[in-house]
Write a structure and sequence with these properties.
This protein is mostly helical. The protein folds into 3 domains: 101 residues, Serine Threonine Protein Phosphatase 5, Tetratricopeptide repeat (Alpha Horseshoe); 51 residues, no CATH class; 77 residues, no CATH class. The chain is 79% helix and 0% strand. The longest helix is centred in the middle third of the chain and has 19 residues. The N and C termini lie far apart (71 Å).
């Protein structure tokens, strides 16, 4: 429903359109009405007729700080960014506008999604990781989350050199797809780099319990084998292998596990 003030403004716009023609004063009044109502698409049409995109951007940028509320301000910044991209071909300037939006609303999905390809093309791994993190806060589909988690984890590990954050994201990916060999390899590799074996063991035990609860015996067996290797070869907790991982006949189906079993046989008193 239109408010009385907005209805009055719209009526004024209709009158201005009817008599605008090429009269500069009338056109200026029409431009101000569009700005007041936040009708950015209409304002774009207004400027498109003259092709004065630089002026349009300046008008928006000069009025953005005087916006009545954050919603109006964000709307102006989105239009500013769009113009920098589509009319001026300057993604770096568009990125500044999107970044400003995230300053007002750190969880703004649209701004973050538009920043992702810009940061990727600008070779900005920190910005790209931040934008992906914002998107992750909104995504619930497991397959899409898995892809995003792997992408951001790889950025942390290889580009940003923050193995702690990389490990956390690889763990989150592993929890979505514990049976995926790539997830297993990723989380074990970065656990070794960070020495966060206790967190790795906790993640494996949680996934084993979930597999047991769902009746997924093959997955539980595979995860027990992986956990057993970590317990024996990385943290030397051979007693945990005996008590928690499972019977030897389950282990013997895997060559890596067989090596661990031989070590267990060779050092029966080496327990913690």
């Amino acid at each position: 429903m239109r408010t009385p003030g907005r209805a009055t403004a719209c009526s004024a716009i209709s009158r201005l359109r009817a008599k605008s023609g090429r009269d500069p004063r009338t056109q200026e009044a029409l431009k101000k009405k569009y700005l007041t109502l936040g009708r950015w698409d209409d304002l774009e049409v207004f400027y498109a007729e003259s092709g004065k995109w630089d002026e349009f951007i300046r008008v928006l940028e000069s009025n953005e700080s005087r916006a009545e509320n954050d919603a109006q301000r964000i709307g102006m910044l989105m239009k500013i960014a769009e113009l920098w991209m589509t009319q001026k071909g300057k993604p770096d300037r568009a990125a500044r506008a999107y970044e400003k939006i995230l300053g007002f609303d750190p969880n703004h999905l649209d701004a973050a999604e538009r920043l992702i390809p810009i940061y990727a093309s600008m070779n900005n791994p920190k910005g790209l990781a931040g934008a992906i993190e914002v998107k992750l806060a909104h995504v619930t589909d497991p397959s899409e989350r898995l892809e995003l988690l792997r992408q951001v984890a790889a950025l942390y590990e290889t580009r940003i050199k923050d193995t702690g954050k990389a490990f956390e994201r690889y763990v989150a990916a592993f929890e979505i797809a514990p049976g995926d060999e790539q997830c297993q390899a990723d989380v074990e590799r970065v656990a070794d780099a960070t020495k966060r074996y206790d967190d790795l063991i906790t993640a494996y035990r949680g996934s084993i319990q979930a597999a047991d609860d769902s009746g997924d015996v093959p997955l539980a067996s595979v995860l027990r084998l992986r956990l057993g290797r970590v317990l024996v070869e990385e943290v030397n907790r051979i007693d945990d292998v005996v008590r928690r991982v499972g019977p030897a006949d389950v282990w013997c189906s895997n060559s890596v596990a067989q090596c661990s079993l031989r070590r267990l046989a060779d050092h029966p008193r080496d327990v913690r």
